[in-house]
């Protein structure tokens, strides 16, 4: 995942994403554990070991959803935009059968959400000097199937106004942020399409490099076999 995300974001932004998502995920888990203790008075919530890198890995899946949403996986024939949703669905299903996997569930959920929050509202865009990704393809409801989105959108809009209501005075259309009735430059789907193009190019370059390396290794093995004969 790093080979796909780092060429598009840059090394500095890649490390910044890891640090911020990991910190916010750990903070949310700590607050949740303390809140559950005060609600239930069960000390297991205070002493349950919760750690790991799963939250950042879940955030990486959100980044792949943003960059190459329409890229299909080779074996499963599933588009990349559904990877975070499928990961959470499988994790929740497995947690019903094994108690150990349930300990990782909060990390995965908060990691996915914090990764989306950062990419949606906080990530800086040097080329446009704006923050976040306001495209409809990366809305919170895009994690859910089409038939559930009419229910999710009104709820998500409340949090949207809480997070960016001060930055946007009005929203004249559905394509991006507006300020005083005029669209901000770079806030329309053009920026999202450029980001997807960069991600697709990075993926193609990586695949081409892997194919070239594989071909060279095959040729070297043939030469070694011929020399041995």
From TrEMBL:
Protein's membrane topology: Multi-pass membrane protein
Region feature Disordered, mapped onto this chain: 174-201
One of the Pfam families matching this protein, by short name: DUF1751
Membrane-spanning ranges: 14-39, 45-68, 103-121
Ranges of Basic and acidic residues composition bias in the record: 191-201
Keywords: Membrane, Transmembrane, Transmembrane helix
InterPro entries (UniProt xref): Rhomboid-like_sf, TMEM115/Pdh1/Rbl19
GO process annotations (BP): retrograde vesicle-mediated transport, Golgi to endoplasmic reticulum
Keyword Repressor: no
Subcellular location: Membrane
UniProt-recorded name of the protein: Rhomboid-like protein 19
């Amino acid at each position: 995942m790093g080979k796909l995300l780092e060429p598009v974001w840059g090394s500095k932004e890649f490390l910044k994403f890891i640090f911020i998502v990991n910190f916010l995920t750990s903070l949310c888990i700590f607050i949740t554990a303390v809140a559950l203790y005060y609600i239930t008075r069960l000390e297991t919530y205070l002493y349950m070991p919760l750690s790991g890198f799963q939250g950042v890995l879940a955030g990486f899946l959100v980044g792949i959803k943003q960059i190459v949403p329409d890229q299909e996986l080779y074996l499963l024939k599933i588009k990349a935009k559904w990877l975070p949703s499928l990961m959470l669905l499988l994790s929740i299903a497995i947690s019903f059968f094994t108690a150990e996997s349930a300990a990782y569930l909060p990390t995965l959920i908060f990691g996915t959400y914090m990764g989306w929050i950062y990419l949606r509202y906080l990530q800086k865009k040097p080329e446009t000097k704006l923050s976040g990704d306001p495209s409809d393809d990366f809305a919170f409801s895009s994690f859910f199937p089409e038939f559930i989105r009419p229910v999710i959108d009104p709820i998500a809009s409340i949090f949207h106004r809480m997070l960016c209501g001060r930055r946007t005075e009005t929203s004249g259309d559905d394509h991006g942020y507006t300020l005083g009735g005029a669209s901000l430059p770079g806030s329309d789907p053009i920026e999202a399409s450029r980001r997807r193009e960069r991600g697709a190019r990075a993926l193609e370059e990586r695949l081409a490099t892997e194919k070239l390396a594989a071909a060279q290794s095959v040729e070297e093995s043939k030469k070694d076999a011929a020399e041995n004969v």
